[in-house]
Amino acid sequence: MFHVSRITHHILMKLGVDYYPEHWPQERWAVDAKMMADLSLTYVRVGEFAWGLFEPSEEEISFDWLDTAIDILRNEGLQLVLGTPTPTPPTWLTANYDVLQRDERGIVLNVGSRRHGCANNPAYQIHSQRIVTAMAQHYGSYPGIFGWQVDNEFSCHRTTRCYCDHCRRAFQEWAQKRYKTLDHLNEAWGTIFWSATYTDWSQIPLPMYSSAQQSPSLQLDFRRFSSDSWVAYQKQQIDIIRKYAPTHQITHNYMGLGDGNVDQQDYFDLAADLDFVSWDNYPQGAKGPDDIALNHDMMRGFKQRGYWVMEQQPGVVNWHPYNRPVPPGQVRMWSYQGLAHGAEAMVYFRWRAARYGQEQYHMGVLRHDGSKTRLYDEATQLHAELNRLPNISRTPAEVAILFDFSDWWTIQIDPHQHDFSYHKQVQAIYHHLWQAGISVDIVRRGATDLRAYKTVIVPSPILIDEAELETWQHYVESGGRLAITCRAFVKNQSSVWTDQPLPAHLDKLLGVKLDEYLGIPPDMECTVSNVAQTDIQSYQLWADVLEPTTAEPLMVYSNQYWAGKAAATMNKVGQGVAVTIGYLSEPFFASSVWQTLGLNELALPFNLPAGVEATRISFEGGGEGLLLLNHHESQTTVEFSQPVDALLSEQPKVTSLPLAPFGVEVVRW
Ligand code: GAL
What 3-state DSSP class applies to 635? Predict the structure, then answer.
């Protein structure tokens, strides 16, 4: 259990690049370092795929080439982030030891790619620890080192869950630790269903390919175990680095989240052992500009502090079915988006486009031939602008969304409606707030003090946590505005349905009982309206049909056989209000719900044009304003409700401000 403190950030963003000196002749390194220094870069990340070069055969370890590269870079004033090279075990290792992952059909992941090592494989662990020890001993007090990135993108290529024999044994041990006795485990998982009672720990399977679905309890625990396995694997490396390099900062580069994309690793757990979180921002993989913003806010939330972008898309990438052009100005604008959300460093991937290997079409700051792309000029401009901006910080968010990976996984395992997605719901909630210019913190479920927030939204907290209920009760009693959405408090932590009436234990706080829950297939037209029937909206996928006890209805279902029943309610408790939202719609909040949650007071006092992002900022020494981003390829004009000073374009007292395509502006009220 932990407290949440409001996150404020002084906006101070440094720039850097990801560099692979080993891909270029040594004579070039000094040229590159000079160009990086000319660009006023601060950080260079190196090394994360170079295991085979550091250790060309077993226990023949040398860092000579990297020393040379580091010396050249640090002599230009650059600071290094060292990637531990464990995502790419050398071929002698995979040939001599069976360290490869197995997929859920038991098929071996082939060599020649990356992330194919298994976190629970003893040989992979031993060899990983050996190379990291050698590296940390060598670089622990080497000049020019800022810190470390452990491995690279755990869970990339969906490799968090491995189904090898090592993992099966480790999972059995994990389950034994969690449940102590087989009787407890059998009871917790309800193994009496379909005759799955285990009489020996060794019988516990992994949820591999089989005739029908596996037990949701087994699946949820396997997901937790798999995530824990990489947390432990990461910790082995962190312990070594802290021992030999105690003054260095340690991070790991996360990925943007999404169903079927990056959803396998509990990023809160992974953050616990790190000094700071960083992530790799490839906006063309995101649903839209608000989704990029959500990912930035998630990264700030995983550790409740500023974070880095360790890889920023520099231009065209190579790994989409269609790789879109990146117009002039867009990377600069994406960089400002990081700044707006609390990024402390913006590191571009990669310095120079690769001539060989799997990513040849991926652009860099430099082209394949070593000449500058327009990003070089955009980064130059960005650096100059950052230097002349007054000191600003992100105004603390007054709204929190509580987030939980186990809720996400529980719903993924048994969505009941194919398209019901926990994460898409979070995106929809966030989208509505983002459009209104409301800043949001992402906070882990279980936070014990929510007083920093005026409004707290809890999307589908399907897993019951009675202790947390006390926090929520207290928060509302003392004036908080809490919204809980459909599918709340249905199952215990082992994904077993409660024997209490739904929403279990929440009925007093929310002042409702659940009459029935209904999945809505795509071919059913369903609508809700406010009580006065002046505001009608369609909804999708889900309807929790509510029976108010002490709550008042805000929205009612307006067609189908459950018409007239409550769809959203508000319950006054102490000084605050607890809102229940039983359905999913876009926009997410009906206006009666929006007002009850006080979101109208937090929204900007003027309408933002679609695709324009506004982040509230505070100026050092007083004064408030906005950082504005135009995500459009065309000019868009923002009309303010009061005159503002536009600081980047140096225009005083404007009420109407045209933003160029991918334009950025800092305004002060
Ligand atoms: C990231 C990865 C990099 C590189 C990049 C290409 O996911 O960390 O190593 O592959 O994608 O866009």
Answer: coil
